[in-house]
Structures are given as C-alpha cells and as structure tokens.
Specification:
This protein has 402 residues and is α+β, with helices and mostly antiparallel strands. It contains 18 helices and 7 strands. The strands form 2 sheets. A 4-stranded antiparallel β-sheet has the order 1-2-3-4, with helices on one face. Helix 5 packs across helix 7. The protein is globular and about 70 Å long. The termini are far apart.
C-alpha cells in the first residue's frame, strides 16, 4: 500500500469511524469510537500474540511512533517481552520510599489521569524536594512540614508573584494530598500534614473580584480577537459557559463529552468534591467544542497545548494577566465562577440551582435534606447564561445599563 501520512490520519479522525491501520512491522494506528487516536505495537513472543501501547496521536507523531516501535522491536529481538517489562517497571515505580520518589509518583499519576500538573509541580521541585526530598516517608513529622511552610512564609514577597504566605498554604496542601495518595497506595500509614491546619500556616485572603456585564463583554470580544491563542481563548470561554473549575476544564477529554446529549460528565477523581459532576452544555458550548475538536488534532485532550499535553494552568493564568489587551482591571481565571454566580443571581436564578451548577458542596442541614440535582433547571440556566453573554457582546451598552 502507499505510504501513510498525517493527511491520512487527519482524514480518519475527521470521519470519526473506528479503525486500525498498519504502518508496518507491527506498528498500528487505532482510532476508537470515542475518537481516541493511539499507536499500538503488535508482536509475538514465545509463540504468543502480544501488544503494547506506545502513545497517543498527535503527542506521538508518525516519526516518533516509528522510532519508538523500532527501538522496542530491537528489545524484543534481544529476548525482552516489552509489554511485560513495562508492567514490571510500573510495579517498581509504585514502591516509593522517599518524599521525592513519592512526589514523582504522585504527579505521574496526576498527569496520567489527564490533569494539569504545571501549577503544582513547582511546589515539589522548588520547596518540598530541597528540604524533605531525601527523607523516608515514615521519617517526616508534622514539625518538618511546619518548618518548611514557615520558611516559605518568611521569604520576602515579590509583587508579581503569589504572596509567600499563600505559597506556604499551597505547599502544605500539596504535601497533604501527596501523603493521602501514599496512604491510599499502602506506601505509608501516616500523613504528617493532616494535623496542621492551613490557618496555622497563614490566613487565607478571600477574593471578591467579579467582572461586571460590560467587563464580561470586553473580555469575550478580546478572547476572540486573536490576542491570545485560539485554543486558550476557547478554554477560557468554555470555563465561563460551563461554570467549571480550571483544572476540570483543562484536563477534560473527549471521552467525557456526549455531543448527542449535550452533556459533559466529569469523573469524581477530577473534581474538587471527589464526586462525579454532570455539566449541561449550551448550544454555544457545543459550537465551541466543535472548534476545539479540529484544533486538538485527534488528541484525547480537548484543549491541546504543547508537547501533546493539555493547556496548562500557567498558560491560562498568564493569558488573563495580560489585562492591557482587554483594558480591564486585574482578575484571575477562578474569578469566572464568581462572575457567573453574581450575574446569575442578578438574573433571579435560584441559589440552589446555581450552587449545584458550580458543584459546591452543601453545608449543614441542607447537605442532609437537599439532594436535588435540578437537572432541567441547570440545563435551562446554562443555555440562558450563554444567550445572555451573546447579548452582552452584541449590545454591551444596553445590557450593562439594565
């Protein structure tokens, strides 16, 4: 057959039909019914048919997949069952003994589940490893963790970065999650950060920034103006349309989306509440996803960044810092949720429906008695919200005066 190229692959992805195409020597390109494009190496070892996943397209280009398959073929010829060896290495990796090894394991698992690690990995590299990295997991005490956080808090604040007290709280949270992960994997029995209350390290400063109607219209036009990359612009608009958290949106995969039902099902392991959350997609959100589908080039991630990974937290944060592009006062990515909540309340939508759409956890007696999902109301509200934004962009002066 003729030589297969990227043009062939893009056409297969565009057709959205499951396929398996051989590139020779056992290297096979597969496309699932959900649109996940994967390279697989099929081979025989000791008379048995075996296969190993090499990687996803376009993270693995044709050239990279071919080179990787040839390398593995050489190992097979040398008597190595590469699929079994991959499983062995993975098992070895789960035997983390030191804090640094735990950190590598924790973030590898984090990334494997499609979640962005850029905004948290620096906690490990810049703060945790230099002070605690070589310590055995069972050796780390609450005093060690507190001393690390106090040291971070004592550093002078730089106006262009997160404040030192805020960084100290964030690092405490990262250590706590790392050790919770280690306990779940039976690597240790104790979390030294769990007995330290965040307020002991530093007070949390609450934010109250919410964009007004005119500001939202300016931002929306700015995100479509070409002053940020198209993918970043789509990701930020998706956040506003869905009321999702930043990490939930950036880690989203096509397998979580149903175009037919206009729904996005976020699995519990990717939500802050640790429970599955369903987002009802407006017509505008569906149109946005169709554009993202083309830009993702067959990746399993919706918002594809560099090196085959999803757009990172830092990229989104930097985009909204460029307020000179939009002529707006400073705001953060997370302010999208406060903005939506504020304006939806002004539009007289019930608080319970808004809170459910934001996937907030009910507190007190309401948590016991109010188990309603408000599915129909949420679907109607998010469509009304998207229509409202459209009306702001088309006629901001009229809307901002109401």
């Amino acid at each position: 057959m003729s030589r297969l190229t990227d043009v062939h692959i893009r056409n297969w992805i565009k057709a959205r039909r499951p396929i398996a195409k051989s590139f020779g020597n056992g290297l096979t390109f597969t496309l699932s019914a959900k649109g996940t494009a994967t390279w697989v190496l099929r081979y025989r070892f000791n008379g048995k048919q075996r296969e190993i996943t090499i990687g996803h397209y376009p993270e693995f280009s044709i050239k990279k997949a071919t080179e990787d398959s040839l390398r593995r073929r050489t190992e097979i010829a040398g008597g190595v069952d590469v699929a079994r060896e991959k499983q062995r290495i993975k098992r070895e990796l789960w035997r983390a003994n030191t804090v640094e090894e735990l950190g590598d394991l924790y973030f590898a698992d984090f990334e494997e589940r499609g979640r962005s690690i850029q905004s948290r990995r620096w906690h490990l590299d810049a703060y945790i490893v230099p002070k605690l990295g070589r310590m055995k997991l069972h050796e780390v005490t609450p005093d060690d963790v507190l001393a690390l956080c106090d040291g971070i808090k004592a550093k002078p604040r730089r106006s262009d970065k997160v404040s030192a007290p805020a960084s100290a709280r964030e690092v405490l949270g990262t250590i706590r999650r790392m050790f919770d992960f280690a306990i779940d994997r039976r690597l240790t029995k104790y979390n030294p950060a769990s007995v330290i209350k965040p307020k002991t390290v530093a007070d949390k400063k609450s934010r109250d920034r919410a964009l007004g109607k005119e500001e939202l219209a300016i931002l929306w036009r700015g995100l479509q103006s070409g002053k940020v990359s198209e993918t970043v612009g789509l990701a930020l608009r998706f956040l506003y349309l869905t009321l999702a958290r930043k990490g939930e949106a950036l880690g989203a995969t096509w397998g979580e989306i149903s175009f037919e039902r206009a729904e996005w099902d976020i699995p519990g392991e990717r939500t802050k509440t640790r429970r599955p959350h369903r987002v009802y997609l407006s017509a505008q959100a569906i149109t946005l996803l169709e554009k993202a589908k083309v830009l993702s080039c067959g990746s399993r991630f919706i918002f594809l960044g560099n090196k085959g990974k999803p757009v990172g937290d830092t990229t989104l944060n930097e985009a909204v810092k460029r307020t000179k592009y939009f002529d707006l006062k400073p705001f953060t990515v997370h302010d999208s949720r406060r903005t939506a909540s504020t304006l939806l309340h002004e539009m007289d939508w019930p608080s319970d429906v808004i809170e459910k759409a934001l996937n907030h956890t009910a507190q007190g007696i309401r948590a016991v008695y109010n188990r309603a999902e408000y599915a129909d109301q949420r679907r109607s509200m998010l469509q009304s919200w998207a229509d409202f934004i459209d009306s702001l962009v088309k006629n901001p002066a009229k809307e901002s005066s109401t």
